[in-house]
Structures are given as structure tokens and as C-alpha cells.
Amino acid sequence: MESPPPAAPPTTPPEGEATVAPLPRPRVLPAGLSLPLLASAVGAGITAVRLLGPGWDEGFPATWPDAVWPRESYLALAEQGPFRPGFWLGFRPPVYPLFAWALLRDSRLLVSAQTVLACGAVAALALTAARSLRSRSVTVAAVVLIVAIPLQARYAQWHTQILSESLAATLGLLAVAAWWRFAAHPTPGRAALGATALLGWMLTRDAHVISATVVLVPALTLVAWRGRGLGRTIRRALAVTAALVVLAAGYSLVAESRTHRARLSFHNTVGVRILPDPVLSRWFAARGMPVDDALRARTGRSGLDDDFYRSRDPAFAAYRRWVDGSGRRTMVWSLVAQAPHYLSRLDDDLPEVLRGDLLYYDTHGVARRMPGAWPLQLGGPATRTGLLIWLAVALGSLAAGAVATRRGDPSRRSLAFAALLLTVTAVELYTTWAGDPVELARHVVGADERLALGLVIATAIGVDAVIGTRRTTAGTAVAPDPDEESGTADPESTTIDA
For a Cys staple, 121 with which of 33, 173, 313, 387, CB 3.0–4.6 Å? Predict the structure, then answer.
């Protein structure tokens, strides 16, 4: 007869003996530091060093009139400092001169700081995509393109110049990242970050004011009024943001009225775009513009020709009175009343808008160190056909995402954010193009970059919403958020294998 098997050892220690807890798994990275965050920081640092290049030894001297004019330049205004009233009502919007003042107006410090900030903004946007999108395949594609687009020399070269284009691009990307994160998981803190970046972006270049005001103020007000599911605190934060945008726009209008800093662009538009165009010339003449022989002589000439923007020639006295009176309102109203004609002219200028030659401004050889245009227009649309294809893909993805998701699905907030981003960028591109026809490729380069990124973001959000809905409906298990182990993930942030 076989003996019974030995009894299993007890699973609990005898009474009176201490329990020994298993040793915790050692951390590879410090608490709060994730691998994507570390990789982003390292990549941003390497890119910044590559972008600065040998210009460090030369000190990145200021070259362009906007930086070196004795009274109207960024550096001249920074020399006044923010403790003088004239600084806040100066010839330039205040953010970039304030940035220059904080860095002692030193070109080497300025370029180094704005380059590091720009690389950090790209890393922040890429991290936002990684944490907001759920499909791994969509996330990888989106992150690659989000990083690749700003690396192109036509966008990267501005970080080596003493001009506001760099800081404007950086603040724009930070605003996009903050509001995207807010849309994915709204919190008052993210609304505050988004509002700060948005206001900074508005007050860096006057061209940003119209698009932010006419698009974002109604949208923010509507969500604050009707978005009952967001909670009172978040709705109040959105209402405050809308009010701050209105105040910033009002401040910008007052400052421009005091300094007439838009007068040069106004003269450029009249001489280069309105006078040579019979349709526009008749329309403006019917609204008070004195089209006499003296003004006709300015046809095809910019405000800089013969220093016309400074001229006090009595032959143009009636024209100057009109400019300082109803001329500015007429110019703004023309963006609405003449929109079909303007859009037709914008279509003619699309090649220069999308891929104008900017090598003229590359005084520090960035094009020799950074990539050119990516193949297959993956770095953004470069032709009319490419723009139509990108728009069709992005808008189609958003429409598919809206159809696939149900009311109350958190993905719909991200879809609305992407649609709003494309709308703001389109209005900005239109108003910037209409605002000054001289140096057109330079003036629209910021809107061009945000358009390329906006199309990628909209496509990614739309496709991600469709994949997420299909996987959820099919009952596919959702993989844990990679940030959960570090404690940085949001409750609603998940990742779907696709």
C-alpha cells in the first residue's frame, strides 16, 4: 500500500515570525522620468547643437532691417526695456523685444535660447501625440512626421535669425500641444498653459491677432456656455481665456493705432496688390481711397521704395488722411467683402506661399546642415495638387472619426480640436497673405509650418478615432498606457494595438 504524498509546506509563516516582503523591482529611470521623455530631451539637444553649427563662433550677428533699424527694430525696442511705457506701445509687438531684453540683447544668447526652445516645443508636441493617440501605428507615424516637418531647413533656419519668426513658431507649437492635451483630457491647468502660450503667440506678431480673435473667441465662448459635461471650473477657464484673447486683441489694436506700425505693410498692399488690380482699385476708390495721379505713380512700388512710408510729400496728403482715417477699417473689411477675389489671387500665389525660396534669408548656412523638403510632400504640401490631397485626407479622416464615434465619446473633443486648428491656420494663412505682399514667403512661413503640422495632426486624430472605436466595438483588449508605471498617465489615456 502506497504512502500518502507529503503535505505541502504552509503558505503562512508560523505565529510570531515576521513576513518578508519581496524586493521591489529596481527602477531603470528616476521617478517621473519616462523613456519617451528622456529620448525627446536627448533628441532636442542633439538637434539644437546641429542647428546652431559654426555660427556660434561668429555670434549670429543681426542682419535684417527688422533687427537693426536704429529706432523701429526689435533690438532698439529691447534697449528701452519693459519699465518704460514706450516699450509696450512700441513699433513692434512686445513679446520678442521682451525676450531679447531678458537675454541682454546678446545675439549669441538669443539664438541659442530660441533654438533650444524651438527644439523643446517640437519634442513637447511629439510627446503630446504619443500620450493622446491610442493606436500605436498611428502614434508612430504621427510622431515621425511631427518631428520631421520642423527639421526642414526652410523652417529651421529662422531659429538662427534675430527675428520674431522663431519665437512665434515655438509659441504656436506649444499652444497646439497644450490645447491638444487639454482636448484629450481637460484640466484647468492645461487650459491655463494653453491660454499662456496662445496669448504669447498673439503678441509676438500682429498677423496672429485676427485669426485668434475671429475663430477662437466664438469657439471658446460656445464651449464655455454649452459644454456642461466639462464641469464649472473648466468652463470658467475657457471663458476667461476668451476674455483674455479679446483683451489682447484690443491692446494690439491700441498699440498699432498709437505707433502706426502696420503703415508700411499698408503701403505695400496698396502699391503692390491694390493699384495694379483694376477690381480692387475700383472697390477701394469707391470707399474713399484718393486714386489720383500721385497715387497712381506708386503702382507696383512698395512702401520701402524711396522711403515712402516715411514721406511727408504734400502730393500724398489726401492719401495719408485716408490711411489714418477710414483706410484701415476699409482694408480689414475688404478681407470679407472681397474674399472671393482675394482667394482667387491667393490661388495664383500658392506656389510661393507653399514653397517660396527662402535661401536668401539663410545667412548662417542652415540648409547645409538640416534636411531639405521631404519626398512625396510628407513634409507638408508643396503644390496645389499636394495641398488638395492633404486636405482631402485630413478632412476625410476627421469626418470618418466623427461618424465612427458616438456622442459623449472623449475622442470627439480631439476631433473638434483638430478641426479648430485647421480653421485657425487657414484664416491665419489668408490674413497674413492679404496683409503684406512684400517678402510673402517669409511672412507666411509660420502659417505654412502650422498648416503642415495641422494636417498631420488632424489625419492622426481622425484615423485614431476610427481605429479606437472599431477595436472597442470588437472587444479588443486595451494595452496599458506606457506611462502608467511612472505614474504620469491620465485616467483616460490608453493605447490600442493596431
Answer: 173
